[in-house]
Design brief:
There is one protein chain. By secondary structure, this protein is of the alpha+beta class. It folds into three domains: about 20-50 and about 90-415, no CATH class; about 430-495 and about 625-675; about 515-605, no CATH class. The chain contains 26 helices and 20 strands. The strands form five sheets. Strands 9, 10, 11, 12, 13, 14, 15, 16 and 17 form a nine-stranded antiparallel beta sheet that branches. A five-stranded mixed beta sheet has the order 8-7-18-20-19, covered by helices on one side. Strand 2 and strand 3 form a beta hairpin. Helix 2 packs across helix 4 (about 105-130), helix 8 (about 170-180) packs antiparallel against helix 11 and helix 9 (about 185-200) crosses helix 10 (about 205-225).
Length: about 675
């Protein structure tokens, strides 16, 4: 039996027609499972959060190359200090591929197309690998289905395009297995090119593939020692060739590695052991379970593995033969253990009496950059997909394979179903387009949450001050400026939220009561679900915004229409919570929010992880400084640093800008307030 001989079947050949059919089916499934993205390719993004960062990546590289700006080292972000961002998550494979297309398609559309491509090519890559290992076409299709349309992929589709781009791993793995059989010059080059593409997708996956290569070589040596030095030498040469191809990037990254904080947070991003067998938080049916879901909701994660896969794993191990059984079993077991992180978490409890293998691996130089062990689970899915497919082929037998494979596919897709998928919309204020047409180069302090700040730069094309975590792994000088510059530090501190919840006002106040400082701002924001009037009653001064209208007072009653944005801002003290009456009450259309939140309003910050379900309004708590009068030194320092505008989003905290800096908005709309520095 050859090294790639499968579960008792020799050399199942997949025809070009079957490859095209598989690609077509994976494309259709990608459009269906990301619904309603296909209807909003040009107007919304799949996911939220860091999704906007990758859109900025696309734009920035084209802008930098077109304007002669250094793409890595610039003061367009982290103005005025600038930053060298070699360690930023660039996702080069997608970013560079979009450059020639940006003249005909928007960066929003390109982001969505890249996201869809990860589903299509992840499925096809595993389909190719399974077929190469001898799995028949229907089984290979199931392998691709499992590898692409799983909870891990859906979870990362929330905005991590770099982590979604794992489709090249099976291509590299196939090239490496071929090479271990017999290295030739062409096989060395092909394996190195695939590994380079993996690295240009995400550096995590480069590291994982290096570990995977070690597992492959080690497994092969436990099965057959003949030609050991040739196998090892070829694997090393692949690494050398890849390093040479990546050297321009690696040199910059190594030079910058010492200037970024070395945080070890792996234990915080490790899955609970039970999450592997519980439904993922993204699945459409979790809320249908009602009270049954609550006891284990906090234990779930994207590491979830469908029971249709788990039940076939033993069959797959039994059905595999020869070296395939050896390396697939070892690969799956080791990457599963590594994905558990440095210490074991079981049913919400941490077992830290001993370190797991990841804990020892984490001590290796540079390995701290990984930070998120759960991401190793995609390598587990390589083995799981092959075992699932092989087990499925074995139980399907010789008759009725098509309908049996179809049934297995439907069962798998139902277990992982995550529609409707969450989308996010640009919400671009006209003010940004005004800034783009302003004469000269401006510098902005934009307090939108980090990735949105970068996205809006694609519109106004002005320089922006950095924010904490605005790019991946910020340097010490950039962070020092934010932490130590008077006025800047206080402004950022007041916009670091203490707590937020999609809840009723009283419910949010009760949840946050133990976290609140002596002085704080409370923002209540949402979208009206009905036409009528919105009424605010409060024992403390407040400000009300509905769409582009702004009001101040203690009691307000104004008209509001369905889908209108509303924001209530209150500046409060701890003693306000001890009053006999609630500090704030809110009615829409004569119905109080406390009585029926799902019927009359919906939050502005729903999780984009499905299922989307109204859960009241968004209640955000920010800390406030003790200052009650303007701080002239802070105003002068911010002006001296060269900033022209301070922009506060509608969900941000403007207390410091108004009170300490003594500024009033020059421009306001439903999305932001803009303050001219020095006026």
């Amino acid at each position: 039996m050859t090294a790639h001989e499968p579960a008792g079947q020799a050399g199942a050949v997949i025809s070009p027609r079957e490859h095209l059919l598989a690609l077509a089916v994976y494309l259709v499934l990608s459009l269906v499972t990301t619904y309603p993205l296909a209807r909003h390719l040009n107007t919304a993004l799949l996911g939220d959060g860091d999704a906007w960062l990758f859109v900025w990546n696309f734009w920035w590289w084209r802008f930098a190359l077109a304007n002669g700006v250094h793409p890595f080292c610039t003061d367009f972000i982290h103005y005025p200090t600038g930053i060298c961002a070699y360690l930023h998550t660039w996702n080069f494979a997608n970013t560079w591929a979009t450059l020639p297309l940006q003249s005909v398609l928007s960066v929003t559309t390109l982001y969505n197309l890249c996201s869809l491509a990860t589903f299509v090519f992840a499925g096809w890559g595993m389909f190719r690998l399974a077929g190469f290992l001898g799995v028949p076409p229907l089984g290979a299709f199931l392998a691709g289905l499992a590898y692409s349309f799983n909870a891990y992929h859906y979870g990362e589709a929330n905005g991590h395009l770099n982590i979604m781009t794992y489709q090249w791993i099976p291509f590299f793995l196939q090239a490496m297995i071929q090479g271990l059989e017999r290295w030739t010059r062409s096989r060395l080059v092909i394996a190195a090119l695939w590994l380079t593409l993996v690295a240009l997708s995400d550096w995590y996956y480069l590291l994982f593939c290096v570990l995977g290569t070690g597992i492959l070589v080690g497994s092969r040596l436990t099965f057959e020692r003949r030609g050991a030095w040739t196998m090892l030498g070829g694997a090393v040469l692949v690494g050398v060739l890849t390093s040479l191809l990546l050297s321009p990037l690696l040199i910059g990254m190594i030079g910058e590695a010492g200037s970024v904080p070395q945080e070890r947070v792996a234990a915080d991003f490790s899955p609970d052991l039970l999450s592997f067998v519980l439904p993922a938080p993204t699945t459409s049916y979790t809320n249908w379970l009602g009270p049954l879901h609550d006891p284990w909701a906090r234990l779930t994660s994207e590491a979830s593995t469908p029971w249709t896969v788990l039940t076939l794993i033993p069959v797959g191990i039994f059905a595999l033969r020869g070296w395939n059984r050896r390396w697939v079993s070892i690969w799956t077991a080791l990457f599963f253990i590594l994905s558990l992180g440095p210490v074991l978490h079981v049913a919400g409890h941490t077992v830290d009496r001993f370190l797991l293998p990841y804990g020892w691996l984490e001590k290796s130089p540079g390995f701290f950059l990984v930070r998120t062990p759960i991401r190793m689970h995609i390598m587990t899915w390589v083995g799981l997909s092959l075992l699932y497919a092989t087990g499925a082929v074995w139980i399907m037998g010789q008759r009725g394979r098509v309908w049996k494979a179809g049934l297995l596919a439907v069962l798998f897709l139902l277990e992982t179903l995550s529609v409707p998928f969450g989308l996010s919309h640009p919400d671009i204020s006209p003010f940004y387009r005004q800034l783009r047409s302003s004469p000269g180069q401006l510098a902005l302090i934009d307090l939108h949450y980090n990735s949105k700040t970068l996205f809006y730069q694609t519109v106004h094309q002005q320089k922006v001050m950095g924010l904490p975590s605005i790019v991946s792994r910020q340097t010490f000088p950039a962070l020092h400026y934010l932490h130590e510059t008077h006025g800047i530090h206080q402004l950022l501190e007041e916009n670091q939220l203490i707590f937020f919840a999609n809840s009723t006002p009283s419910g949010a106040l009760q949840q946050a009561s133990s976290l609140l400082p002596g002085r704080f701002s409370l923002l209540l924001a949402g979208y009206s679900e009905i036409d009528g009037e919105i009424e605010v009653r409060s024992s403390v001064p407040h400000r009300l915004q509905t769409q582009d209208r702004f009001y101040e007072g203690r009691e307000n009653r104004v008209s509001i229409s369905r889908n209108d944005l509303f924001v209530v801002r209150l500046e409060m003290r701890a003693e306000d919570l001890r009053l006999s009456q609630p500090p704030v009450r809110l009615w829409i259309g004569g119905k109080e929010i406390e009585d029926g939140p799902a019927a009359i309003a919906r939050p502005i910050l729903p999780t984009v992880r499905v299922p989307l379900q109204p859960t009241g309004i968004t209640c955000i708590f920010y800390p406030n400084t003790d200052s009650d009068s303007p701080d002239s030194s802070a105003s002068e320092r911010i002006r001296a640093e060269g900033f022209d505008w301070i922009i506060v989003p509608f969900y941000g905290n403007d207390h410091y800008v108004r009170v300490a800096l003594g500024l009033r908005p020059v421009y306001q709309d439903r999305w932001l307030s803009a303050y001219k520095v020095g006026e």
